[in-house]
Amino acid sequence: MTFAIAGSLIACSTNKTTGDANYQVIPLPFEIITSEGQPFILSSDTKVVYPEGNDLMARNAEFLGDYLNLPVITSTPSDDKNIELALGLESENKEAYRLEVNENKITITGATEAGVFYGIQTLRKSTALKNSITTFAPVTINDAPRFGYRGVMLDVARHYEPVAFVKKFIDLLALHNMNRFHWHLTEDQGWRVEIKQYPKLTELGSIRNETVIGKNTGEYDGKPHGGFYTQEEIKEIVAYAQERYITTIPEIDLPGHMLAALKGYPEYGCTGGPYEVATTWGVFDDVLCAGNEETYTFLENILTEVMEMFPSEYIHIGGDEVPKVRWEECPKCQARIKELGIKGDAKHNKEHYLQSYLTARIEKFLNEHGRRIIGWDEILEGELAPNATVMSWRGMGGGIEAAQLGHDVIMTPTTNAYFDYYQTANTEHEPFAIGGYLPIEKVYSFEPAPDLLTPEQKSHILGAQANLWTEYIPTGEHAEYMLLPRMAAMSEVQWTAAEKKNYDNFLQRLPQLTNLYEKLGYNFATHVYDVQANLQPNFQTNALDVEFSTLSNSDIYYTLDGSEPTTSSIKYDGKFNVKEDGEIKAAAFSAGKINSKVFSEKLLTSKSSYKPITLLTEPAKDYGYNGAALLVDGLYGGSNYKTGRWIGFQGSDLVVVIDLLQPTEISKVDFNTNVVTGDWIFDAEEVIIESSNDNERFETVTSETGINVKDEQWQDVVSHNFTFDAVTARYFKITIKTLDKMPEWHSGSGRKAFLFVDEIALN
User: Quick check: helix, strand or coil at residue 212?
Assistant: First the structure.
């Protein structure tokens, strides 16, 4: 067995350097005990030794031998200084290992072969020098993962990726000690898995005629996009993952996200079609007909072939984003509802319970074949199938509810685990992404088992997963950029004991891993190495406090007038404050040369900047960020509403009182709203501006209603400007009302809209 590795760290060379191994790897092991003594010297004479007759250990040995360019032998008496792989570690955790180094030998002992494999990962990551003779200081490393489920989801349905990239992705999982590959194979935009009983799934469903440009702009690229995996290719990929102790979990999304399937088999839809493979992104009304008995035969036949390709205990059946409008009008669905005696209630309508019936039937079928289902947290809407595992993506709430009900849970909330989100607030020079904002620090802060759960409930949290949806990620190189190095942060969330996690320490260990990314040829983002800025309004000094830092501890030079920083600019030597308008720019320098991207932030102050502000209403959950302070910090949010520079409301209006500290003449109020109707974010519905001198009796200065008038999806940053006859007052109350019910043309019709505002400027 030969393992394809994108680089070898120890190569035959007559000009070898000497380097010391560094055990401070990612994910951080549970216990690293160093000791005195002579080091073990790894050289081209070193051999990898494994127990004879164990095929799994032979693969482990070949993996390490290929990586380090060392010969592999079975265990025989020898006085040579070798790396020995062994079993026999006593541990309840089957993925545990012990790595021991002394002058004469390196030994990796596992509770199972998988444990040995993770010890190998620690060893390879500690030897990050190429063409070198590495010395290993004496050490004992005792390690085991915190969670048994450690995964990443790769969506190949929106954009197909060839087999070679899927294998490269699996290598990334192995490098980060991950053991679950969630493979999203079917969607409205493409069906990627061969099903021999239904050949039109791939003949027709794997190709879309063209792809929308941008975010449903109405413009298209005019290029067909397609591709699928044969059953032989899938078995090859599954085996490739198994050799790295990774379980591949397929996702066949049902009963929604099925347009590609309905293209070939329209008889399983409520209307009979015709249907087309989607060329835009989003959620579509056409889903499988839950009232048609033949639909269940169709699904069972598909899943039978899926089970033959994937030995995984789990089959993911999706269950998310299933509009009920077709079912509400479909005679067969309504007849099935009547036949089953399904009733709606205060929480859910009868069509939600029809989906619960469908899910339960599919679960029963899979259970009868020794399999279990995973579904997205929408499967909680109605009656949760008896043995279902819930994948919580719409925040943590669904996972918490499921764990409290005694169901197993995998936590993968958008707030911490969606790697299709931007990883920097400055998106101008970033590859196009779906939106959002998820920096590496936010990933690292993720806690999958919150303390509000009891110990028994926490035991149902199987682990955590990151997701890479690919609507806007058309290439493997782009995918790598979105995954790395955030995957490193997720690996510590999944593997490292909670009490051992420390973000600052993680940052100190990260360069060793990113150096390895570079040697292995991965495309990774470097934002974490750029100048980091902490900008905070100071209400005592009425100014903006500015602090800079870099992971490399390089010298930082900055300007305040928008000019490019050089070594002749102001050298940063600690926190400073800014009161005037301008553009802050900063960069890190080493040996007189710039070694980072240029940080840039515009500051636009007003009479309300850095003045005391009181928020009288509650922001929406997860969108409060820095609270009312961000409305008067002189900083604007840009186009991305998830950067933390916008404050969001839903179900309550934005109402603030700004204290100008003394009577001040005001004749203008400006603010921006960030509108993304596809994400349920609308413009202000009504604006009321009031003034007061005692903060008790307010008089209306001006107001406006009827702002939300468009009857189509749209997005933009909207500038609202109110001018009026000058008013002199100390206090100004600003009320910006949310849209209570989204209009009929919107998919969220009747529900409460979000409102996002970034800065309120009084002048």
Answer: strand
